[in-house]
Amino acid sequence: MVSWFGRRAKRLEIPRLTGRGETLPTTKVDLGELVPPLPQFLGQAAYMELGVFESLAQAATAAPSITVKGQLSRSAGLALAKHESLVDELRRRGTDPAEAMAPFSADLDAFRRMRAGTTWHETLIGCYLTAGLLDDFFAGLAAGLPGDIRSQVVKILQQDAGFAVVVREVTAAIATDPKLASSLALWGRRLVGDTLLIARSALHVSGDLARDESRIEPVFTEIIAAHTRRMDELGLTA
C-alpha cells in the first residue's frame, strides 16, 4: 500500500445514515487505506467543483426568468469558491493546481457532459444530485487525510452549495406537470451509477483491499442514503 507523507490515519468509524426507516449496522473502515495521496485527492476534488460551476453556469443561461438566472448564478459562484479554496490548499503545499487537476480532466469533463441531460430540469437535478453525492463522498474520505488539513477540507466541501433554487424549480415543475416526475426520477436513478464510478475512481485500493470489495461498501452507505433523501426532497423516487 502506498503511504502518503509517511503517515497512516487512525482507524475511523464512518457514520451511516438510514434511508426510509432502514436500520444499518455500523462498520469500521480504515480510511488510511482508501484515501489517495493528498495532491491527487485535492486535484480531483478541485476539478470536480470546477465542473459543478460550469454545469450551474450552463443552467443559468437557460433559466426561464431573470430571478432564477441570478439564483443559479449565485449557486455557480459558490461552487467556484469551493474550487478556489481547494486550489489554495494545493498551492499552500507547493503543488501546481493545473498539474494536480490534469489527470482527472477528461473523465470529469465527460461526466459533466453526461449529467447535463437533455432538458433544463435534467440539468438542474444532474447538478444537484451528483454534486451532493460527490461532496458527501469526498468529505467522508477526507477523514483519512492528515490532521493538519482534514478539518479544512471537510469544511470546504460541506459549505452551502445554494441548491435551494433547484429544489424549488423542480418541485414547482412537477406540481404543474405530474407526469414529469417519472422521467426525472428515472434520470436521477441513472445518475447514481455514473457518479459512484467517479467516487470509486478516487479510492486508493491495492493488495487485499482490492480483492475485498465488501470493505469498500460501507464508504458508500451514507452517501447513498443522503442521495435518497435528496430525491425525496425533489418529490422523486430513488
Structural descriptors:
globular; 238 residues; 10 helices; disordered N terminus; two-stranded antiparallel sheet; Ferritin
What does this structure look like?
By secondary structure, the chain is mainly alpha-helical. It has one domain (31-234): Ferritin, core subunit, four-helix bundle (Ferritin), CATH 1.20.1260.10. The chain contains ten helices and two strands, in the order ββαααααααααα. The chain has a two-stranded antiparallel ribbon. α1 (38-61) packs parallel to α4 (105-115), α5 (120-141) packs antiparallel against α7 (164-176) and α5 (120-141) runs antiparallel to α10. It is globular. This is Ferritin-like fold-containing protein. Residues 41-199 form the Ferritin-like domain. Pfam families: MiaE_2.
What Rg, in angstroms, do the CA atoms define? 18 Å
Structural class, please? mainly alpha
The tally of helices reads 10
Strand content: under 5%
What sort of overall outline do the alpha carbons produce when their principal axes are compared?
globular
User: What string, H for helix and E for strand, traces the elements in order?
Assistant: EEHHHHHHHHHH
In helices, the fraction of residues equals 55-70%
Per CATH, the architecture is: Up-down Bundle
Distance between the termini: 36 Å
Main sheet record: 2 strands, antiparallel
* Widest beta sheet: strand line-up: 1-2
CATH superfamily: Ferritin, core subunit, four-helix bundle
What is the average per-residue confidence, as pLDDT, rounded to a whole number?
84
Q: What is the count of structural domains?
A: 1
Q: Which fold does the CATH topology refer to? A: Ferritin
Low-pLDDT stretches: 1-26
